[in-house]
């Protein structure tokens, strides 16, 4: 039943991804402001939605539900409680978070888990690197198996190269290449980081700002990997908080039973139940502003007829180029020049349903967790375009309609309009299958079904005109009732939890009557929000 609210104020929220939907629910639960969410696509969740193909579910990019923020973890737990432990034991898990009442002591193997849907699972995290036809742990494990695969010569080169990077570090760090070399040494960077990173961004690492590393890798280094490996001997198992662990090194995470979209579909239901609105296939095409305020907006829905909408507050999670292009009157020429020069990388997932998987010992769906327990594999092989492989069976067994089948996703990074993006779906699937055959992952006759999903503007890039982004921010921050949030809204490569935190902090500011937005922009840059202790 829809909750009737006595409200005096309204918020227009552009985009129904994690940042936009978090904003809406926060406003409903903490203020008298009614949120109205306009989502331009046919579903909620943004890139954290779950795509369904003939009963098989795809998680675009892979979304681990993990945060160093108690606030985010507790927020998630209030939406979907925990189903049970990763090991299936019938004892309560040690969480290390405040809201323990929401974490249900119910093991994953009973009672009747098939009938319990609105829950989170605890999943083991495992990822590896495919290089030279061999699989290496990621992060690298300094064990005998790794050393054997590398060989004595390569191991010595990596060691000497790392020592050189510590004695003679590159200063200042002007590029992502500098950032990686300072932390891993040039030889390890060339072996395990360079090719994959350049697949993602389409340009050499020397042309990418070091800020990307500070944003995504932070404290990870070769010394950090060694410290983590030694600490694992003494670390208490089962504690999912992992606050003393670099995010790239976490060993387990939470995951909605039916994929990340399940979280945001449930949040959408709650927003509507509590008196807010969420509209899909509804795109905001114009924002009017005057005297430092947004004064109104124009919305276009499936009817094709523009409609004026008005609110007291406006929150934008859409990409900055679209937002600046929608401004009436147009922004200052310099700010518009910067927004026009921002670059995005686009994303394609090719989903393949298989009878078995050659990589990992001919695993079928039922035994993939034993023979191939990876969530994903980074493809460092230079001869193919595929960047990463997702193994959806291992994210959640409930993502696969038939447990005997293997359900995987091949991730391609491209530019909208390039040859890969414009390739026919059938041709692209054939191309992907051939690449997997080439690197010895599958045999083509194992393929039962296929699907291609294209996602534009998935990765905001730290090159192009990004070094002048402050000129955009100066203009948008000057509009007092406009808040830029989330990954594309801020042109920042945020994780899901950081996007949510920007929304929470924005609502904090409204409640406090605070007009300075610096604390929103500081999320994932100040130590309080870093993915480190």
Please give a handful of descriptors for the protein shown.
533 residues, 23% strand, disordered C terminus, alpha/beta
Commentary on this structure:
This protein has 533 residues and is α/β, with parallel strands linked by helices. The protein is 33% helix and 23% strand. It contains 20 helices and 21 strands. It has a 7-stranded mixed sheet. The chain is globular and about 70 Å long.
What is the β-strand count? 21
Percent helix, as a range, is 25-40%
Dominant shape: globular
Mean pLDDT: 86
Nearest-angstrom radius of gyration? 23 Å
**Helix-strand category:** alpha/beta
Which strand order does the major sheet show? 8-7-17-18-19-16-20
Ends: how far apart?
43 Å
The helix count comes to: 20
Strand content: 15-25%
Q: Characterize the largest beta sheet: strand count, sense, and whether it forms a barrel.
A: 7 strands, mixed
Low-confidence blocks of residues: 85-112, 245-249, 526-533
Structure described in brief:
The protein is of the alpha/beta class.
Topology, element by element:
Elements: E1 9-14, H1 18-30, E2 33-38, E3 50-53, E4 56-59, H2 70-79, E5 82-84, E6 120-124, E7 127-131, E8 134-138, H3 144-150, H4 152-167, H5 176-184, H6 186-192, H7 194-201, H8 211-216, H9 222-231, E9 252-256, H10 260-273, E10 277-279, E11 283-290, E12 293-300, E13 306-309, E14 313-316, H11 320-326, E15 327-328, H12 333-340, E16 342-354, H13 368-371, E17 376-379, E18 388-391, H14 392-395, E19 406-414, H15 419-422, H16 425-438, E20 447-464, H17 469-477, E21 482-484, H18 486-490, H19 496-512, H20 518-521
Helix pairs in contact: 1-10, 1-19, 4-5, 5-6, 11-12, 12-17
């Amino acid at each position: 039943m829809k909750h009737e609210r006595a409200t005096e104020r309204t918020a227009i929220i552009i985009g129904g991804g994690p940042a936009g939907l978090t904003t809406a629910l926060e406003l409903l639960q903490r203020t008298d402001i009614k949120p109205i969410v306009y989502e331009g696509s046919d579903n909620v969740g943004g890139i954290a939605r779950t795509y369904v193909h003939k009963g098989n579910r795809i998680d675009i990019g892979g979304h681990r539900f993990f945060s160093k923020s108690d606030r985010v973890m507790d927020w998630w737990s209030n939406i979907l409680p925990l189903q049970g432990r990763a090991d299936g034991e019938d004892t309560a898990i040690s969480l290390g978070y405040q809201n323990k009442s929401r974490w249900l002591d119910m093991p994953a193997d009973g009672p009747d888990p098939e009938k319990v849907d609105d829950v989170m699972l605890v999943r083991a995290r495992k990822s590896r690197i495919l290089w030279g036809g061999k699989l290496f742990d990621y992060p690298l494990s300094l064990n005998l198996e790794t050393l054997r695969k590398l060989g004595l010569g390569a191991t010595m080169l990596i060691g000497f190269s790392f020592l050189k990077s510590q004695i003679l570090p590159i200063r200042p760090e002007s590029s992502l290449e500098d950032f990686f070399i300072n932390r891993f040494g040039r030889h390890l960077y060339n072996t395990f980081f360079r090719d994959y990173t350049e697949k993602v961004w389409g340009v050499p690492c020397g042309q990418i700002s070091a800020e990307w590393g500070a944003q995504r890798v932070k404290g990870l280094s070769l010394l950090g990997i060694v410290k983590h490996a030694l600490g694992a001997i003494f670390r208490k198992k089962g504690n999912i908080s992992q606050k003393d662990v670099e995010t790239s090194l976490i060993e387990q995470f939470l995951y909605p039973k039916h994929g990340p979209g399940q979280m945001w579909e449930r949040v959408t239901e709650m927003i509507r139940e509590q008196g807010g609105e969420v509209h899909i296939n509804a795109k905001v095409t114009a924002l009017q502003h005057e005297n430092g305020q947004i004064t109104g907006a124009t919305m276009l829905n499936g009817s094709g007829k523009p409609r004026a909408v008005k609110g007291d507050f406006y929150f934008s999670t859409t990409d900055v180029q679209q937002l600046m292009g929608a401004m009436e009157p147009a922004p200052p020429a310099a700010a518009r020049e910067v927004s026009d020069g921002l670059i995005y990388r686009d994303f394609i997932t090719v989903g393949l349903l298989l009878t078995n998987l050659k990589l990992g010992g001919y695993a079928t769906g039922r035994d993939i967790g034993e023979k191939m327990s990876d969530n994903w594999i980074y493809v460092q092989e230079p001869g193919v375009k595929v960047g990463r492989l997702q193994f959806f069976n291992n994210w959640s067994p409930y993502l696969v309609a038939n447990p005997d089948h293997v359900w995987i996703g091949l991730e391609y990074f491209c530019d909208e309009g390039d040859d890969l993006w414009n390739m026919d779906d059938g041709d692209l699937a054939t191309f992907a299958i051939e690449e997997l055959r080439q690197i010895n992952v599958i045999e083509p006759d194992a393929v039962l079904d296929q699907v291609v999903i294209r996602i534009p503007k998935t990765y905001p890039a730290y090159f192009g005109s990004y070094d002048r982004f402050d000129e955009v921010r100066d203009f948008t921050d000057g509009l007092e009732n406009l808040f830029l949030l989330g990954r594309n809204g801020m042109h920042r490569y945020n994780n899901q939890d950081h996007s949510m935190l920007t929304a929470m902090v924005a609502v904090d500011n409204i409640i406090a009557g605070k007009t300075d937005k610096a604390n929103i922009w500081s999320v994932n840059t100040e130590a309080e929000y870093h993915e480190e202790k």
